[in-house]
Each structure stands twice: as structure tokens, then as C-alpha cells.
Amino acid sequence: MDKELISNGKKKVLKPETLMMGYGYKPEWSEGAVKCPIFQTSTFVFENAKDGKEFFEMAHGVREPGTHGAGLIYSRINNPDLEILEDRLTVWDNAEACAVFDSGMAAISTAVLELLKPGDVLLSSEPIYGGTEYFFETMLAKFGIKTMNFGVQHTRQQIINMVERGGATNKLGMIFLETPANPTNCLIDIEMCVDIAKHFSTKDRKVLTALDNTFLGPVFQHPLKHGIDLVLYSATKYIGGHSDVIAGACLGSKGLVNRVKSMRSVLGSMASPLTGWLLLRSLETLKMRMTTAAQSAQEIALWLSTHPKVEKVLYLGLLKEGDPQYSIYKKQCLSPGAMISFIVNGDEQASFRFLDSLKMVKLAVSLGGTESLAEHPAAMTHSAVEPHKRKEFGIADNLVRLSVGVEATEDIIWDLDQALAQV
Length: 423
Ligand SMILES: *Cc1c(COP(=O)(O)O)cnc(C)c1O
Known about the structure:
The protein is α/β, with parallel strands linked by helices. The chain has 14 helices and 14 strands.
């Protein structure tokens, strides 16, 4: 399937949701199969030794890929399911290139290990996903890479001052952000971060920017458009969307993604052919799933905001004009998405009682699947965050996080209502 079709001399550019049905794949490659098969194979036969030599030269970047792309060698290096998936994923973010991984953490760690070196400083927004934070603070520290943090409350100038006073002016290697932040839905200004990276870049040292776009992407937020260098995903969440696969992705320019891919080939953190195939299937319904869940979430958030047992609802669709967060929202988000957090009247016990009383919504971590999931950040996903930090981020002991799925909205509301009645 091509991105553009021509009829009677007129060009039609196809929408991303249309391209998800077949972009990057041609039925004639596989006996006319309308769907790309699973290439469950570890290695590929070369037609002759010269081909084999050239394919390795392409893999090492010393030869330009031919018209059919780089030749297939070995499934740690390349595989049709992964290559087709990568082409298809570039469509949403309008990226030059993509690399897919066996998990979101594999995508983040492989990219950061390739792009930073000992002595570099990584500036990261907070709060961020627990696994990412552990990797930054504990693993990167072992390799001599220091992490500095900033939060939603910090201005451009405060962040610049912090980097300078921390002696990192000439050492800053990357700014990493996660927005909206989990679980509070706080927004970090992407443009501001890109600007800070420019401020610290010199002629021979570019400060890179990377953004974990798991919560709104790839349908509702396009960071590359705002100047971000690298977009990262836990494809386990919305991209996979059925709570049945762990996967990740990294997108950006050809130059950066090729570097990340060479590290991936060495670490062996690529996705398996079956994972690639499952994600190709998931992408066909991505926009439908995300749009339905977001519409439902807006209704649910409004309903929760008037419920007497609910103290406060943290949802992007409830931001009001005049709030600085609202102007950031308008600049960089295309929809409030489907993640709602809310504070239940009472203490930890009260929120536990609510969670234990749910009959249809499942009590589980993770998010972005077709089924609604609820969890308790302070006791579960964010339990490793130090108590004073939890307080600073607003992760209260009575805060509940809800990932809205695609069930009937009235059924979700019915369940939330009957469980809140038990509080
Ligand atoms: C889940 C998640 C990750 C980690 O992804 P895995 O696929 O579990 O490795 C990273 N970032 C965010 C925002 C996540 O929600």
C-alpha cells in the first residue's frame, strides 16, 4: 500500500488510520496473502555469496540499502515482520525511521546506552515511569552518567540555572521527558525543553531530546513536530492495546535510529517476529480504540468530578482556560486521552475499599488496553518513589488511577458508582 494514490492526474494522500491496513507490505511478496505472515525464522538464505557480503555491508552501514531495502540476514539484525511494523509506525509520528523492541524498557535503555557516554549528564523530568527512573538513577550511575531532575513547577530559567550550578553546562548529553506525567497527568512544556537543549548545544555537541510518548501517542501527541529528536514508546500500552504483549519502539531521524539499531543488534533487545505480527494487527484498530476510550474518559471524568465521594479529578479534559497547564495542553496535545486519576474522599483504606469493590473494571497495573484497569499508584506503581517525593508530585495515599478501556461508558460508570458507594 502506497502513501499516495493518483487517479485522473489527481493525488490523494491517505490518512494514517487507512495506511495501518497495509502500508509497507505487498501481497505479492507472500503468495498473495492479504496479511503479512509471521516470519518465524532465525536466519535467511542468501542467493549467492556476493549477496551475503553485500547484505553485511548494508548492515554495517558501508553500503547503501538497495531498492528492496537492506538484505535479510538474521532475525536479531532484521526480520520482515519488524521492518514492516517499523515502516508502519513511522506514519503517525511522521518519523524518518523506527526501531522496535521487546519492551518499552528495552527501547529506552538501548537508546540511552547508545546515545550517552560516561561523563555525560542526563536531565530528566519527574515523575517518570518507575523502571525508567531506576535505570537512570541506578544503572546509568554505574557507567558514570549522572542524572539531574526537574519538575512541572520549574521555569525555563530555573532549569538552566540548575544545570549551570550543577556544573553540567558542558556535559549535558540529553533531556528526557515524559508528558503527560504518570499518574498525575501533569504536562511538561515540550517547546521549552527543546529550547533548553538548544541553549546548551554547541557547534560540535548537540544536546539531544527524547520523550516517552506512551500516554498520548502515537495518535494524540506528535513530539517530533515540536522539535524532539527521539520518541520512545512502551508499545505494551496503547499501540499493543490488548494487554497481551510486551513491546517498545523508538522513532526519529535515520541517523539516530540507525545508531540505536546497531546497539539493539548487539544487545539483542529487538522484538520477536510474533510480537511484530501482533503489533501490526493492533495498529489496524489503534485510532478507533484510542478515540473511543478518550471519548468515554471525558464523560467519566465529568461524572466523577461531581461525585460526592470524589475529592478531585486529574484529567486533561478538565483543564480550564487561564490555567498555565491548559496553554501547554493546547500547544502539544490533540486529545486529553483516556488516563484519569482521582482522589477518593478518605484515606488509603477508603481507596482500597473502592478498588476491592469493583466488579467489572480489573484491579491491575499497566494501561492502554481494551479493558478498563484501576490501580493505586502510591501502593503499587509508585511505591518505590520516596514518600517525600510522592508528596511533592501529588501521589496521595487516596489517589486512584484509571485506564479507561472501550467497554460501554455506562457500564464503567455503573461499576465506579457501585464501588464508590462502598467507600
Ligand atoms: C509501561 C511503561 C514503560 C515501560 O514499558 P514496558 O513495555 O513495560 O517495558 C515506560 N514508560 C511508560 C510511560 C510506561 O507506561
